[in-house]
Amino acid sequence: VVPVRAPELTAPADGPYSFSSQPRSLPPRPKYRQQSNAAETEKGPVRYGNIMIDPRVVRGNVLSVRPPPPQVLGTEPHTLEVKRQRRAQKQILARKFTREQDQPGTPEPVEGREHVHVQTELYLEEISDRIIEVDGECQTDEFLDRPPTPLFIPAKSGKDVATQIKEGELFDFDIEVKPILEVLVGKTVEQALLEVMEEEELAQLWSHQRAFAELRNAEFAELQRLEEQDRRIREEKERRRLEHLEKLRKQKETAEKIAARAFAQRYLADLIPSVFNNLHDSGFFYDPIERDIETEFLPWLMSEVEETLQKKVLGRTMLDSLIRMVVEKRLDEFSHPPPSAQTKAPAEEPGAADAAPKVSGEADAADQPVAEKEETDQPVAEEEPSDSTSSQLEE
Amino acid sequence: MAQPRISAYLPPDIDPTKAALAFGRRALPKLNEELQSPELLTQQRALMALCDLVHDPEKVYQAIALGFLDSLKTLLVHQDQTVRQKTTEVLSIMALHSIGREGLIRSGVISALTGLLDDPVDVSRKNTHQIFDMLAKLPEGAGGVLQAGLIPPLVLKLKTELDEIQELILGTLSNCLRVEVSEALAAGAVTVLKEKLSHPSTAIRSKAAWVLLEISSHAEGKIAVCKEEVIPVLLSLLEDTQPEVQVSSTGALMFALVTPQGRSSAMGAEAIPALLTLVAEETSKARLNAIKALTLLAELPEGRQTLLDHRDTFQRCLDDPSEAVQRAAEIAITVIDWKP
């Protein structure tokens, strides 16, 4: 037991060493694997192992340089193995050495003789390197059924005693069997009844269903018949309705046609007279003689009349101018002569005035026989305006 | 070693073909496990035991709640024919109970059974058709059968199968065709049924006529029936001796005569006398249907003329105990007396 020295954790700050970590003694390798929880819970005083017997410490000459074992990649196990081998070899050598020193051996054989190993026991033994091995087998039997237990007949012991039961002594079979029989028969019959009832129930259900099906079918057929009837009636109605509509339509068409025809007739009845009237009015139908008269005769007549009137007017104008001349001359004449001529002048004048109407009366009288006195017409026409001018002059 | 068996000799009345049943509530779960075991013998024995148990409705309820139907469905496609046969037997007994029927429809056993229609063993096929028949009596079952597209194969089977299976097929078809008829018509059901109407067996004839009834209750069915000229055959069946045949054929006529073509072909085939004989019989079950058929014919002018002479037959029908017959007779009399 090495006295435990407290590790000096704190290095002297001004020490000459330059180790990265303080040199320390390693705790020994425990013999047994530590349980993980034990190591955590219990960290007792740290025990240091004997450095002299620590296998981890390199022994021997440290100063001479040993060549490192050949290192290949990932050779850690190899190095360990190599180390182990070396150690083992050394141990063997060491043991051999010591053993040879312990045991005194037999002396060497004399010249000419040879030592031979000999077995001196009672029984010779073959010594060989190979150990004689013999294989032995052992096997339990296949599982067998347990054989049936043999009938166990216990040995007879005790006294033999016999007894005899006569008929009718124990019980009356007929009476005893009755309840059992009743139960048996009753159960059987009950079961049978149940089965029969089940079948009957099923049969009833099917017959019920069948009856219902019949009724349903009958009703359904009735329904279909009524449907069919309804369909027929509806179709018939529809056809009749269409026919009626057609009839109405035709009637309406005919009525319209008639109305149209009547209206057209009435309209056209006026057409011809109105057309003729229009044409007549616009002068398409003309009496040729009337036309002739109108277009030729009357203009000619009018022109002739105009001519005649112009001539009359001319005549009157001439007459007027004549009268004027006369009157002027007379005026001249009477203005110079003595006033006796003045009474003549007024008498002349009325006479001229009388003469004028007389002339006009003559002219008028001459006017009437128009066809004969054509030449006087114009002077008459001229006279009348000149009459008015002369009368105005006088006034 | 200790064994549950006490002696080497088995008890005297045990059935070696059945599995041992566990006690009480544990019986069915244990059978379920045995059904799923890989060994054939275990499965067979479990099925045998199940067949006996399934007669009890409580056991059926428990079985369905435990999910037996899934294991039974997988067993339907087993190679061994005994397994298949017994499975179909179990399912058919289950279908006898209402809970069983509902469970079967819900778990889609119908589609799983389609593969068994061609099974070589007769009993399996018979059980399969029994299941279909039972299920088709429910409306959801009929819908399920229709959805599984079973109608064309069933119509085909009708030509080739044994007689008793044919009866079952006809029963299934009649219930399914009540709902929808187009698939069957596409598969040519009317032709097949027309042949069956002349089958020697009574049950087949009456069931075939019933299927025709269901077909002609639909509009396209009526057209097909008139086209295939089934009406004369049905009329010939009216003189059949068996009452069920008479009932079914009058029922089929009752529906087929709604269409105008049907009526004209019936008039052409002299339907009125035959129907009148049926109406006149007091105890005939076909009375109701015959009265309905005659009502339809009375809507035709020539029919009305003929029936005016037989008015008293209908009067007598008014005394029939059945209310439906009385009503039908009243309606018939109204139609006969109708004047445009």
TrEMBL record, chain A:
Subcellular location: Cytoplasm, Cytoskeleton, Flagellum axoneme
Region spans: Disordered: 1-48, 333-395
Coiled-coil regions, chain positions: 216-265
GO cellular component, one term: cilium
Official protein name in the record: RSPH3 protein
One Pfam family cited in the UniProt record for this chain: Radial_spoke_3
Keywords: Cell projection, Cilium, Coiled coil, Cytoplasm, Cytoskeleton, Flagellum, Phosphoprotein
PANTHER family attached to this UniProt entry: FLAGELLAR RADIAL SPOKE PROTEIN 3, RADIAL SPOKE HEAD PROTEIN 3 HOMOLOG
Superkingdom field: Eukaryota
Organism: Hypocryptadius cinnamomeus
Biased composition (Low complexity): 348-357
InterPro entries: Radial_spoke_3
Bias-annotated ranges (Acidic residues): 374-386
Family the entry assigns: Belongs to the flagellar radial spoke RSP3 family.
Automatic annotation (TrEMBL), chain B:
Protein species of origin: Hypocryptadius cinnamomeus
InterPro entries noted in UniProt: ARM-like (IPR011989), ARM-type_fold (IPR016024), RSP14 (IPR042856)
Lineage of the species this protein comes from: Eukaryota, Metazoa, Chordata, Craniata, Vertebrata
Signal peptide from the UniProt entry: none
Stated name of the protein: RSP14 protein
Gene name for this UniProt entry: Rsph14
Taxonomy, superkingdom: Eukaryota
